[in-house]
Design brief:
By secondary structure, this protein is α/β, with parallel strands linked by helices. The protein has a single domain, classed as Spore Coat Polysaccharide Biosynthesis Protein SpsA, Chain A (Alpha-Beta Complex), CATH 3.90.550. 32% of the residues lie in helices and 26% in strands. It is built from 10 helices and 13 strands. The strands form 3 sheets. It has a 9-stranded mixed β-sheet with strand order 5-4-1-6-11-8-12-10-9. Strands 2-3 form a two-stranded antiparallel sheet. It has a two-stranded antiparallel ribbon with strand order 7-13. A hairpin with a 2-residue loop joins strand 2 and strand 3. Helix 8 packs across helix 9. The radius of gyration is 19 Å and the shape is globular. The relative contact order is 0.17. Bound molecules: 1-O-phosphono-alpha-D-glucopyranose.
Amino acid sequence: MVKKAIIPAAGYGTRGLPITKVLPKEMFPIGLKPAIHYVVEEAIESGIEQILMIVSRKKNMIVDYFDESLELEAFLERENKHHLIEIVPVPSVPIHYIRQPYAKGLGDAIRLGKSFIGDEPFAVLLPDDIMISEKEPALKQLINQFNKYGKTIIGIKEVEESKLKNYGVISGKEKGKGLFKLDDMVEKPSKNAPSNYAVIGRYVFTPEILSILDDKQQPAGGELQLTEAIKDLLSEEDCFGKVVDGERFDIGIYEEYLNLVNTIEQARKRKK
Ligand code: G1P
């Protein structure tokens, strides 16, 4: 059973400068909710019972957002605005926080979760990727596959050739519809990408990945990539890529962020 998730939210968000100097990209508004709210909802709707967020010094706003706001609640009570208290977000599952002291990469951020995860399978959701799925939440789709095979499952999607350089790209053989047995992965290929299937920021891992990350040397002055650890994992265990149903928006790309805002707004108008 996959009950725990890690959400790494410690990056600088350089693609979003200058606004990300003061506003974490995870707090970019999509309708009246910040991006990270959608990711936490996806985790909870997928059956996750505990979340660990990896934050950094500049991300206190995220911690505040998911905390109780006693002053605000007292004010709303006093003003008889009870209906508003319900929309103030306090998640139904515990959220724990660890600070990543230096921006040393996604792999380094995930390995900070080792003692939280222990010896269990776990999910990772990257909050730059917002998944809008008509059917099941994206993470739930991966957990269903994990429950079937008991192996690491990585969410993938076919993307345009010109965008492959922004992502981890898989190489593998299709075993069933949209399910690939992986044989390699390349992080942000500048050319000769091994396929058109990019990693979308949703993963279900066996705990082995944490031991691999723990043993890995931090590259001098550089970032420890999660992809490097996944490549090592491939030589120890079978891992799969699963094409996820639903639309994916990478909010680090401004046009995709605007598209997402419009998509959510149109859905809201249709509901009215
Ligand atoms: C990370 C991963 C990459 C993945 C991407 C998904 O890259 O390293 O493999 O495809 O997330 O958004 P980042 O966006 O942190 O540069």
